[in-house]
Amino acid sequence: MTAPNSGMVSGSELIGRALALEGVKNVFTIAGDHVLPALDSMADMGFRFVDTRHEQAAAHMADAWGRITGEPGVAMYTTPGFSNAIPGLANAQHSESPLLSISGSAELAELGRGAMQEIDQVGMARPVCKGAWMVTDTRRIPDMIAHAIRVAYSGRRGPVHLTIPVDIQQNMVSEDEVALYAPNEYRGIGAAQASQADIEQAIAILHAAERPVIVAGSAAAYSRSGEAMQAFIETTRIPLLTEGDARGLVSDEHPYCLGFFDQGLSQASRKIRDADAVLMLGRKQDLIIGYAMAPTISVDAAIIQVDPSEAEIGRNRGVAVGIAGDVEATLRQLTAEAGKHVWSDLPWLNELRAERRAWQEHLESLAVPDAPMHAMFVHRTVMQQLSPDDYLIFDGGDYCHFARAYLPARFPKSWLYVTPSGMLGHTIPTALAAKLAHPDRRVIAFSGDGAFGFNGMEYDTAVRHNLPFVCVMGNDSAWGIDRQIQLGVYGKPVATDLLPTRYDQVVRGLGGHGEIVENPEELHSALERCLKLERPALINVQVQRQVSPRGQSAINRWKSHTIVPI
Fold this sequence. Notes:
alpha/beta
């Protein structure tokens, strides 16, 4: 707690002090009437404001910052700007990012009377946030920020929102009436231990299994590295599949990591139906894993579920062992117990490896040098120039699904893709957040021409804030995946055709570097050139209209009228 002081302090300065205690240095924003006092005071306090061209992009950047760094991502905007941010908050709810949304509003005394730009901000935020509150007393600003961030980090992480009226920001109060606390004084740091009985039972099940598999999801990635997970699989020799933010916690090139858990994009992951024991680490029992029910997971399989949220354990199917707690801490306990046993490579491991090899060979076979290019030719060309610590960021759509099926995750928090919400357009803001977090690393983004339209103007943000990255666009002049689904299910496309727009010229007009690539022999040199430029760049690649494995899976799902993972 900070020492008392007899001076006076404004609400705006209290916002800055509370955020500074959390280690916040960057705020993603667009200026507007109802946050001008806060912006003014916080600028004097040394905060860096990354001002975007749309509030949705500001929310996406704060979302990505929170997941990449583990620190709170803060987005700040005025009243109509808050309305623009709602899609970004909805996406952050699905990505489970520790995001703090702060909006201003008209003066407290005027609310409810038809005040300037008045809307029910708190009511709008609640469905897409873990919590939303209005600050009605300047003295309460620090403790309400503390409470909001505590909620954001508790259990499974997620976005939270505070509305702070403009007069609450401007009011002056005595510092003697205000208490500010460091994070370790108001929220738990560290993790409780799982019971030894649960640890022993889990290891007994896994040791006895002939076909065990581990699926790690986003909540397993709250740790800053994958050391605990790697130690566990090296001790037990149990194959690992990763998804969400857990991608890259253990490199896909590790002998016991079988890559991406996505049954539409990974042949090896479909083998989970044959597993006799499944260890779910921070992986919800949701659609992605078939609600953990048959046929995705056999009715005879034993499920062990470790999750920071007790509410997620056994949500759709009962478990043999359920452990509510920090995934990394639990893994260390499991590894210690597993060390008391002898483990060997199982024939099951070779089955999974064979499935993975066959899938890679199939994808490689599609990479022929045609014009326009198949998406796989593009991604194989990119693969030839990748470094292990490059950021790879994927939007949705058929073109990007081919990339996700093929390109490996080799570094923690560096392989980021569209959330389970399926919301397009996050990729460019996410790329900027990644470059801001790690300016010494290369950032390569993948977007279709449709998704680019949502936040393409953020190239202006990238130029103004000197955040160089390369976006490799697959341009098929269509809302690709939906067009393919329409053709596969209904036999005709409706409202899914786009123009062959020169998005590379748009980027050049915004101050970045843009190139169009129409022939396969041009791609390698264009990519090499853009990666060396150290400028925001777009490669507009003309690609074929081809259905991805994920798109075909969706078509099959529509036709079967069966609830199965896509």
